[in-house]
Amino acid sequence: MEANAPAVPVDTTGLAKATFAGGCFWCTEAYFERLQGVEAVVSGYSGGKKANPTYQEVSAGATDYAEAVQVYYDPEIISYQELLEVFFATHDPTTLNRQGPDHGKQYRSVVFYRSPEEKRLVDDYIQKLEEAGTYRDDIVTKVQPFKKFWDAEPYHQDYYRLNPNDPYVRSVARPKVLKFESNYAKMLKPEYQD
């Protein structure tokens, strides 16, 4: 596969799409691909203007892109609302341009909505979280219309599973994914349940 070639490994006909950016896409992809009803998750770039962005450009902060994931899901099994809840629970939506050790605008928190209904759901959920005092600080997640998603290079796809000994995966991603599996056990695909 060439850089930015389509990375979707399954037939996505009839599936809905959701696009989120919440820090390093290796972690974000690992969370969503474990959920029942999610058929594919692709790591990539969204929120910028340049055609065919590369990881080198995005990770250096040389573009307006965020590391993002595109989630292909069956809305009969998992709802957009449930995806939103997972998204907000698996990263810190109160830190501007930063998630853990990763910093820069490429790691910002963004929900890219595809319809007025999705925007309403996102806005309502953020308001609900704020009113409940879920976070000590204000939520800084951007809510932007979806425009374009560029698949990341092939070596970024399914990175967590394929690179278990990568130092970043071992020290940063694995603890987060294990916590996620514990907190969302009832929503996990059978192969990720105890």
Q: In brief, what are we looking at here?
A:
The chain has 194 residues and is an alpha+beta fold. It contains 6 helices and 8 strands; from the N terminus they run βαβαβαβββαββαα. It has one domain (16-189): Peptide methionine sulphoxide reductase MsrA (Peptide Methionine Sulfoxide Reductase, Chain A).
Protein model, in words:
Helix content is 31%, strand content 21%. It has six helices and eight strands, in the order βαβαβαβββαββαα. It has helices at 25-32, 55-59, 80-89, 116-131, 159-162, 167-183; strands spanning 16-22, 38-46, 66-73, 98-99, 102-103, 109-113, 142-145, 149-151. The strands form two sheets. It has a six-stranded mixed β-sheet, covered by helices on one side. The protein has a two-stranded antiparallel sheet with strand order 4-5. Helix 1 packs parallel to helix 6 (167-183) and helix 3 (80-89) crosses helix 4. It starts with 15 loop residues before the first strand and ends in an 11-residue tail after the last helix.
Lateral arrangement of strands in the main beta sheet: 7-6-1-3-2-8
* CATH topology-level name: Peptide Methionine Sulfoxide Reductase, Chain A
Number of strands: 8
Look at the structure and give the mean pLDDT. Answer: 93
Residue share in helix: 25-40%
What is the helix tally? 6
Architecture per CATH nomenclature, i.e. the level-2 architecture: 2-Layer Sandwich
| Helix-strand topology string | EHEHEHEEEHEEHH
Name the poorly predicted regions: 1-5
Structural class: alpha+beta
Shape: globular
Kindly provide the radius of gyration, computed on alpha-carbon positions and rounded to a whole number of angstroms: 16 Å
- Terminal CA distance reads 34 Å
Find the CATH superfamily: Peptide methionine sulphoxide reductase MsrA
Which class in CATH terms?
Alpha Beta
Please summarize the sheet with the most strands: 6 strands, mixed
Please indicate the count of domains: 1
Which band does the percent of strand residues land in?
15-25%
